[in-house]
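## Example record

The block below lists the input lines for one assembly entry, exactly as stored, with component labels intact.
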Amino acid sequence: MPGMNSGLSPDDPTVVAAFRSALLHQGAIALILLVFLIMIWATARTWRAAPGAQPEAGDAGATQGDEAQAGEAQAGEAGARAGESRGRWLLRTGFGTIWILDGILQAQPKMAAGLPSLVIEPTAASSPGWVQHLVNWGATVWSYHPIQAGAASVWIQVGIGAWLITAARGRWSRLAGLASVAWGLTVWVFGESFGGIFAPGLSWLTGAPGAVLLYVVAGALIALPEGGWLSPRLGRLLLAGLGLFFIGMAVLQAWPGRGFWQGTTHGQPGPLTAMVQSMASTHQPHFLSALLTQFGSFAAGNGFAVNLAVVIVLAALGAAFLTGRPRLVRYAMWFGVVFCLAVWVLVQDLGFLGGVGTDPNSMIPTILLFAAGYLALTPAPQQVPQTEEVQAETGTPAAAAAPGWSQRLRPRALGSALATASARSVAAFAAVAVIVLGAAPMASATVNRTADPILALAISGDSETLDIPAVAFQLTDQNGKAVTQASLRGKVVLLTFLDPVCTTDCPIIAQELKQAGTLLGAQDKDVMLVAVVANPTYRSTVFTQAFDRQEGLAAVPNWLYLTGSTSQLAALWRQYGVTVENLPAGAMSAHNDLVLVIDRSGEIRQELNADPGPATASTKSSFAVLLTQYARQALGGS
Amino acid sequence: MTASRAWARLALLGCASLGCASLLAGCGTQAAKVAATAPPPVTAPLSTSLVTAQGTWAIAVMGGPAASENNFWQLFVRPAAASKWSLVTPAGVADNGGLVATGAGSSLLVGFRPSQDLAFSPLAASADTGRNWSTGLLDADLANVPDAIAATPAGPELALLQDGSIERAPTASAAAAGLWSRLTTLSALAASAAGSRCGLAGVHAVSFGQNEAPVAAGSCVRRGVAGVFTEVGGTWRSAGLALPAAFGRDQVQVLGLAGTAAGSTVLMAAGHSLLAAWPDGARWSVSDPVAAGTVRASGFGTGGSAWLLLGGGRAETVAGPGRSWQALPAVPAGTATLAPGPGGSYEALAVAGSKLTVWRLGQGAWAAVQVIKVPIQYGSSS
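Predicted structure tokens for the full assembly:
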């Protein structure tokens, strides 16, 4: 689908270096924020402990709020120790760890330029058109701003993971669950194309319905009121849902005509064999690839038996979970753990090895979910309702103690709250700051319709900074009027060489110049967009006018397409180092692509290699932005 | 909860799950494609040859696949009285979109079909067997048919566009300057009395007939009717080509037109047959049919002759009005086009990548007489 990726190599060194630099830069900011936060926290604690720092008489409300917050913090600490349901704890820490791992995987060098082409496009390719259309929006945002989007994904995921792990109880913890839901849905829709549920070949073995949807479910469970975790009902519901899911997946796996019963079909590997073989061929430790290769061969030769086993196990697990009987569920859970781990290793290849894996795929999240379901079904006897615990620790009912927001936001109340905050609360706050650190540039990128100039720099290399006078010439514009170099003095000139009957690069460069003119806005009147014909045969104004009509440049007031006699043109080409040559056998006229930036005084300031490269929507926009920047620099420096 | 209630719930949920899974299986399975029952339309590829006063010209595509833009169309000429072919593809424009050509008195006019980001059609004309070319412009998209342009010695030129419209330039110099005007559109021609009588569906060729009257031909929805029209005094009329009653139930599609002093020679497909027709005063002379096949190339020679290169190595020629189709020996592998050869024989131009081999028919067999290595600029249009 057009626009879905930038067309750049995922290993492009310029993009990789910029991505690394952005991560280091933002990482440093995150570290500074953390240190700053710790310093403030430590200072506040010291201040509060000082003998003279007693609350004033008028601060009764603040005092009350302080006490309530202190109580909440202590409750959080206590909850982290003992009060939290074991199931919730498992989901929170398990999915928190996975989010952090996903964030680390997002920091792979190939991610910035490669995610759309290596992850999003292949996933969306087999989905219906409306899914591709929707996914294309997200992929386009990414391809326009690969550095910001790539870095944002790292920090958001690391931040959500850290937040889930550190915020054990209360409102902050539930908010972490909601953050996980929100970001998980974003990734599920735009990164996984709805987990491929609308594409053919959906299979639990390969990760259906998308690993991140399981993160979303877990996030929603974490966001539930904590009281819900204290009765077996939630566990029963969760296991029933998982039971339905497993049975549904068993039916899908057994559905005739979907190809899962054949290890090979007409000499071609079946879906399961193909997936295993494909995973085995990726770069990974030898013992793993050997294991996968062996299993792939086994699946190819025993496709029916393998699928039958999968169908039976899925159906049996589903049925066991649906019963809600703790004893049966316990056995099913341990069997499910073993089975899921086997699938994780033998089919999903741990999910992230080779290529550009973004997560460990669906098996570990699945294990966490049904294990949490079992733990919720069988609550530990020592668990007590949170409200009782809070009352016990603070001596007052939590609801009655809660002060209003206006009281909480008073500087004194804030300072006091900070002083009484637990280390976990400070860490959770730092995690949220990390999320904001990533989300803010991404939000800015999402609303920015122009691409990052890094794409153009990756294609063209650094432009050459010059300080030499422009070559004098006298040529004819597209309307037959004489134009000289001297007549352009007083304006910044973006000068290029274009073939009017070119089928590839020249129309693209013209569009980039035109877009640069638009981006210049009011400054456009001080900039001339000038092209000189680069074709020794098709060089008359008939062709420059046709080119202008073709590219919608006829009405652009600061656009000039200059031509002249063959000798005039040849002299100019030679002086600017442009090689123009008619190639034989039906090939177009060859010439080098460049744009010169000439300042108001007629000095050439920069020379840019204008080869449009893959000429995707994002690279074209990026070149336009880069040309705009150069023009503005020349305007400012003249 | 009792065991029976648990199992009842289990069964209920299992059924619900089965239903959801069935729905998903339906969503995730691509619908089988409905098999097409209509026969594929017969189309004329751009590969062709034509004879002018300067010599015999041939157009063929060479190089690599179109998908990678490594297909380059080439123009060859065997000057009159010469026995060797030369590569004379006009320079300066990438011709991946295709070349079309027509004789214009003593010169040859070539049109470049647009490709990739080029939206108009540059032209080139040569009066010296391709040694020098002058440029021209049609600011529109030439149709993808071999007879998309036509010219007369006196100057008027016609161009058939991809959308079925026809443009006219009053002189060669006007064409060179891009001064074309709309002669008609497909909808206007279809709405004319003659067009509506045949149910005109598309225009596939243009030419000049008697007294330099523009001729357009295409395909008709009405069965048994050949859509050949001529423009006189601003009105499009049927050229009066009537097919034998045997073709009354066949749809007719014109593949090519060649202007001659006597009118336009027509090559057409009617049902499962291919036919040629020649004007004969106010009437038309229609050839016997020849069994249709995949048309790989078609063209016209002198004296009303015509030829067809068909799939499976078949080639058929007809020498002119009143003559029967003659099958040529199976053409050499890779034959892209045929061309009338010296002494009334035929030549087959066979392509293998960037190599062109000229085979000449003599004594009932093809013999290789020339090999041309074409300097294809692979990757230059990518």
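Confidence is low (pLDDT under 50) at residues 21-39 of chain B. Chain B has one domain: 3-373.
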